[in-house]
Design goal:
By secondary structure, this protein is α/β, with parallel strands linked by helices. It folds into two domains: 296 residues, FAD/NAD(P)-binding domain; 133 residues, FAD/NAD(P)-binding domain, CATH 3.50.50. The chain is built from 14 helices and 20 strands. The strands form five sheets. Strands 1, 2, 3, 4, 5, 6, 17 and 18 form an eight-stranded mixed beta sheet that branches. A five-stranded parallel beta sheet has the order 7-16-8-9-12. The longest helix has 21 residues. The chain is globular, with a radius of gyration of 24 Å. This is 4-hydroxyacetophenone monooxygenase. InterPro entries: FAD-bind_Monooxygenase_sf, FAD/NAD-bd_sf. It holds the Pfam family Pyr_redox_3.
């Protein structure tokens, strides 16, 4: 009997997303001897967040020695903190070197991924047809869906408007009146770049961030040569940077420890801004680390320039080209740039992934994501989530990516070796794990630092952060323990075809 399902391509594994997490998954699948996989990428090239974000000054806020795969060091970084172009190039070079591209289906956007108990596989619908797989790795990344603020009249703004992640390079800002909404990680990079060009710059700051100095500098060719021919030197640098971030990560467990770090940030404000009124505006009233800690040497000097006006409040309404702040003050603008960040606490992929009951992850979660080890989710057998609930840390994303991939590859290898049909979290263990996570978070600066951050979801729960060290994360994800999961072994019945 020739059914339609036989024409649908079936693979052992499907990876969704072609950023660093998806590329890492593809490399590790090949390394594990699993070659029956495809990677679905919505765009026409790999790159993830580093393809999407091309705003002026876009760069990493983790030193490049740590913001790279541990198994693929790059000795030719031009700076301590690499820029967007270089990082994207590193990603694409790595994809070529590890011969991942033959597995990639470009311009294939995953519209939905549903687990089917009837078919015992993942059913992934794309804009170019349907695919089935035994396992799915959702590697869509958290910095993906831009947040567009719900401001009265914003849609009817009479000038140009765009989000920083979709930068309009065709718009010349020279001599224009520009308004920037938001003062987060993207804004502190692009504002100093555009400030010298524009006529007037109005920066709407709902809540100030703590900003530390950025120890950035060019890496001379002598250092690059040393890294290339004596690779242990770059490994030592990576280890040192990791140690610094791990110390900071440990400090985030305690308000008292972070107040010591805060003194550096306070001094940084004094150095960059002499005007006492502006200084007060940009000084946060919460403990450093409660929100994401930012780094810049140019942010405060840019805000102090005469053509810049910092509005200590939200944008509440737009009328024509007039912007009205929450305190009633008004400003004119020709261009609005939204530096309003991304959906982090509620990842957009959750609206497209459906469990065995046909419910989307976001419907199940109701604003408070929960998973097991940040990697698997209830009622989604054989589905692995990169950057899942409560796995974020104040360190390099690569620490998380590589820890999760070690865990996932071990799961896949054990499943294949033991002829296992499905793996899914045990609801009892998952509930216990999440209780431990929430208890551990109670005393941390993320929960007790006195701010409202994207780490805290709409129900007031921290469903984003891993509360322990990355040492503990790597240890707990170093081996996939089948005993912690519900497994269904494959039973081959000779009578099935009778």
């Amino acid at each position: 009997m020739n059914t339609k399902s036989k024409t649908i391509p079936f693979h052992r594994v499907i990876v969704i997303g072609g950023g660093f997490a998806g590329l890492g998954a593809a490399i590790k699948l090949k390394e594990s001897g699993i070659h029956d996989f495809i990677l679905l990428e919505k765009a026409d090239e790999l790159g993830g967040v580093w393809r999407e974000n091309t705003y002026p000054g876009c760069a990493c806020d983790v030193p490049s020695a740590l913001y790279s795969y541990s198994f693929e060091p790059n000795p030719t970084w031009s700076r301590v903190f690499a820029g967007q172009v270089e990082i994207k190039q590193y990603l694409q070079n790595t994809a070529q070197k590890y011969q991942v591209l033959p597995h990639v289906h470009f311009q294939h956007e995953a519209l939905s991924a549903s687990w089917s108990d009837a078919k015992q596989c993942w059913v992934i619908k794309t804009n170019q047809g349907e695919f089935h797989s035994q396992f799915a790795i959702m590697a869509c990344g958290p910095m993906h869906e831009p947040v567009i603020p719900n401001v009265k009249g914003l849609k009817n703004f009479k000038g140009e408007i765009f989000h920083s992640s979709g930068w309009r390079h065709d718009i010349d800002l020279t001599g224009k009146r520009v308004a920037v909404i938001g003062t987060g990680a993207s804004a502190i990079q692009f504002v100093p770049q555009i400030q010298p060009l524009v006529k007037e710059l109005t920066v709407f700051q709902r809540t100030p961030h703590w900003v530390l100095p950025k120890s950035d500098m060019p890496l001379p060719s002598a250092v690059q040569t040393l890294f290339k021919y004596v690779p242990v030197t770059q490994s030592v640098m990576r280890g040192s940077v990791y140690g610094i971030f791990e110390t900071l990560n440990g400090g985030l467990q305690s308000n008292a420890a972070m107040r010591q770090v805060q003194r550096i940030a306070e001094f940084h404000i004094k150095q960059g801004i002499k005007d006492s009124e502006l200084r007060t505006k940009v000084t946060p009233n919460y403990v450093i680390g409660c929100k994401r800690i930012l780094q810049s040497n140019e942010w405060y000097p840019a805000l102090a320039q005469e053509n810049v006006n910092v509005v200590a409040g939200a944008l509440s309404e737009v009328k024509g080209k007039q912007l009205i702040a929450s305190d009633g003050s008004t400003f004119e603008a020709d261009v609005i740039i939204l530096g309003t960040g991304f959906e982090v606490a509620e990842p957009p992929i959750a609206q497209r992934v459906y469990n065995r009951y046909g419910q989307s992850m976001s419907d199940v979660w109701q604003g408070s994501p929960e998973g097991y080890m940040g990697t698997m989710v209830a009622d989604c057998p054989n589905g692995f989530l990169m950057f899942g609930p409560n796995i974020a840390v104040s360190s390099s994303a690569f620490i998380i990516i590589e820890a999760q991939l070690t865990y996932i590859m071990d799961a896949l290898k054990q499943a294949i070796q033991n002829n296992i049909k499905t793996i899914e979290p045990d609801p009892v263990r998952m509930a216990e794990f999440n209780q431990r996570v929430q208890e551990a978070l109670q005393s941390t600066v993320w929960n007790k630092g006195g701010c409202q951050s994207y780490f805290i979801d709409r129900n007031g729960r921290n469903s984003t952060v891993w509360p322990w060290t990355t040492f503990k994360m790597r240890q707990q994800l170093s081996r996939f323990n089948l005993n912690e999961y519900l497994i269904d072994r494959q039973v081959k019945l000779e009578t099935e075809t009778a």
